[in-house]
Structures
1.
Amino acid sequence: MIDIRSDTVTIPTVAMRRAMAEAEVGDDVYGDDPTVNRLEALGAQMLGKEAALFVPSGTFGNQLALFTWCPRGTEVILGEDCHIIAHEAGASAVIPGIQARCIPDPGGVLDPKDIAKRLRKQDLHAPATSLICLENAHSLGKVATLESMDAARDLADEWELPIHLDGARIFNAAAVLGCSAGEIAARADSVMVCLSKGLCAPIGSLLAGPRDFIDAARLKRKIMGGGMRQAGILAAAAIVALNEQVPLLAEDHSRAKRLAQGLSQIDGIRVGEDSDINMVFFSRSANDDAASCHPLAAEKIVGHFRGQGILINPPENGVFRFVTHYWIGDKEIEAIIAVSSKAFSKCSSKGGSCRELLSGKA
């Protein structure tokens, strides 16, 4: 199957499977796993931080950062569409026990003026701000400029606040900006990066930052249940991901642009222009009298793709998202465009309110 639901669906490469089979391991809770230790040292070096910690997932890493930085009952400033708010199951209310103060984040960027309006010192009525969270690349596909991050950094320094960066796709952002991941991470005190997603490792993320912060996070990782034992089997694949897969991310971006161009040629489809990385967002054309796809038609579209050997997600708020990754090559891009042309032409403005799909003729 061609799977473009997300870059989380990537499977390990042959080199990763070989490294996992041959990995030297030990008890990581004791600090005895040499492969985990190598991974953490490599990650810290690539991100320009003093130390790093291997954790099970990106959500785990973000919540661990909040749990470590923020006293319970304090307030965190973050974007209203960021991953921590939109896709982490409300964990910040359960694990660190913080109050999230959301602000608009168009293009994945927090306006420093909007941040400044919401920063607070503790008094009888208000919680103190304890952290500012940024995301780059944003989970909606946008890459924030270094200048925009600098503006948030200046404000955080003025208030003596740390910044945590959700850098799940920081290497994608670096490929777009033409800089190193370390240059992006330098704008934050801590950073989380996913080793799965486009990098193809099967499991795991890194949380990196100052050594004393990582020492404190190691204890809290244990509290959260993330102290794994012979985790070197997983870390071995992650080392391959950092050494071999990072340079290939730009190819995923290029194929996403080719896919977007092909989709834009289909009648009734409007491709968004707001993704910088390996994601393509599109919807029905604005001039269609049924621009947001009928739920039943959306189900039939998903089923049509599945029948042709392609896995996609249904639209969210009328918007489809296709995601390229290492296992989507040129041949797969052409197949996706061809199937899309047949599927969406039956749900185009010419077809009128998805009539053919709803009638079962798709």
2.
Amino acid sequence: MATEQAGHADPAPAPQAGEVLFDVKGLEVYFPIQEGFFKSMVSTEKRFVRAVDHVSFQVKKGEILALVGESGCGKTTTGRALLRLEDATAGEIVYKGRPLRKYSGKELREYRKKAQIIFQDPYNSINPKQTIFDIVAEPLEVNSVCSTEHEKEERVITAISEAGLRPATEYLYRYPHELSGGQRQRVCIAGATVLDPDVIVADEPVASLDVSIRNDILKLMVEEKEKHDVTYIFITHDLSLAWVISDRIAVMYLGRIVEIGETEEVVANPKHPYTKALISVIPVPDPLAKREHVILKGETPNPVDIPSGCRFHPRCPEAIDACKEIDPEDVHIRGDHYAACIRLK
């Protein structure tokens, strides 16, 4: 997407609210395909899954940016690349004015204190053999944050209490199997916030929870954002959730961001056909409201063999012949709103 250039002062000052925290430029993350023995012997061509394919965007300090799209669109890989859990094949991720690829050793360890992740599945992302205290305290111990046991205990209790498990002392020495799914996810949130991070990547944090619990978890995340000025990259396949919680939305399809902008602007004035299709199936509370549902035909193409031209054209209800040939550039709509479609020019 069209972006402003971030400064490269070193050391970079802490960004204020609204300033650029991440500046992502042309990010690509490709995964090589492991061929069978005989096929690898006769073929010299290497094939790749193009999980993230030339993506550019910015994340501002103190905002919630939602990455939205179908399974396999590259949103999780993008989030993991921001934390350097996946290596970028090409492109640049600039954090506070300094490229992440230049971080090593002590700098990378310091960065990992400030950039945390909440995984999708609270049943598998925490160690069932550890107590809640040990789970939440582990980031403090790994990073040698606390000088005394008393300080560590205070920080763990504060994190657990702010995550909504109260009184926190009653949960310290329980094990994960003694908690509900919602309580386990609160433990994951406590583990992510105990280091007072600048940014948290929340990867489908409520997807595995009952609908009755989702609102509480989303409310908790918003409270953490407002109280500690935490920046969230909120990854979800559910556009209605992104509408409720995010400040800006980036819609991804097959490794690309096809539309990005302020949430209310994107939802009220969608420009890309894929965004229109996602919004058309969001439930509305008015039973008399009439809305034409856009049902996409076919399956998402294989990310190993991406279609020529616009990658959405095989499923697009608005496609024209030129869509098969032209790879669309980002078109400025207004403000921070951009969409990649040749029909907008």
3.
Amino acid sequence: MPSAYFVSDLHITSPEDPCAHLFTTFLRTLSGKTNITHLFLLGDIFDLWVADHRYFIDRYRPIIDEIRRLRDEGVEISYFEGNHDLYLCYYWAEQLRVRVCEGPVYVRLGERTLRLEHGDQMDPDDKGYRFLRWFLRTPPVRFLTHHLPGPVIVRIGDRASVGSRHYTSNRKTISPDDAIDKIRAHARRVHAEKPFDIIISGHVHIRDDCTIGDGHASFRSVNLGSWLDAPCYFKLDDNVAEFFELQADETEQSTPHTATRMISL
């Protein structure tokens, strides 16, 4: 019986970040569970991670150790590149042996077909971001990010992150209702192209969970929200398909989906 856990948009900034401690604890609680088969990291786990630079590996060693422990226990781990974590194949795939996904994938879990993605391509009208996403993945940029010294990458990445937040805060911030409309419109669009039972995404910092359609044509759309608002994970198995919030005392609480405030991406 597959049992999968999904998280996204933690935006961990440092080892001292409360989200770093909570995520490490969360991973540790998964270790040894006989029922967990999959862990899906749907992007922007870190506020910055580029390629296989030693700076990031050393900085987030406790998290990496817990990921490695779960992998050794037989958990299938998939890490989706977001807009803050790029070129993950160099370390996460080649050295940690974690599945790295650069775009949307379809996964069969039990009787369900899932479409999984970070979600940064949801808005077809955001031409500026789509160009930036393409540019950052061109061969010359890939070569430079892999071969430039780690400190240089960190400085460039930090400036880009600040610029991105300024852009989204001043130009791209939208209301929760508009954000939910975009999430659900994207779900309808890609379902018409290739049907699935559930789409699970991140990127948009708002939690949303709804059933679209009716009868045989219905499917479920889940957006995971951000740990900057309310740390949580989504669990899916034959008996459960719901959100659980995480608390500092390591307790798990089932929670209905809620629309949280829209924040910068």
